Amino acid sequence: MPAATATLSRAIRPLSIVAVLTLLGMIAGMLASSASAQDATPTASPQATPAASPQAGTVAPSADITRLIEFPLEEFPEAPVSVRLLRITLAPGASSPLHTHPGPEFDYVESGTLTAIAEGEAIVVRDGEETTAAAEEAIDAGELVVFPPGTAMSLVNNGDTDLVLLSAVFHPVSEDVPSTTYPAGEPAAEAFAGVSFTVLGDGIVQDFPDGPATVTLDRIVAPAGADLPATEGAALYSAVDGNFSFAVDGGDVQVSRTASPGLRPNAAPEQEFTLDPGDAAFFPSGVSTTSRTEEDGTVEILRLAVTPDQSIAGDAADISYLGSAEAEVDAPSDGTTADTDPAQIDVGARVVTNDDSVNLREEPTTSADGIDQLGEGVELEVIGGPEEADDLTWYQVEVVGTEGPITGWVAADFISLPGAEEATPEAAAEDAPVQGAQNTPETATDDAPVQGAQNTPEAPGDDGA
Question: What's the gap between Cα 275 and its chain centre?
Answer without folding.
Answer: 11
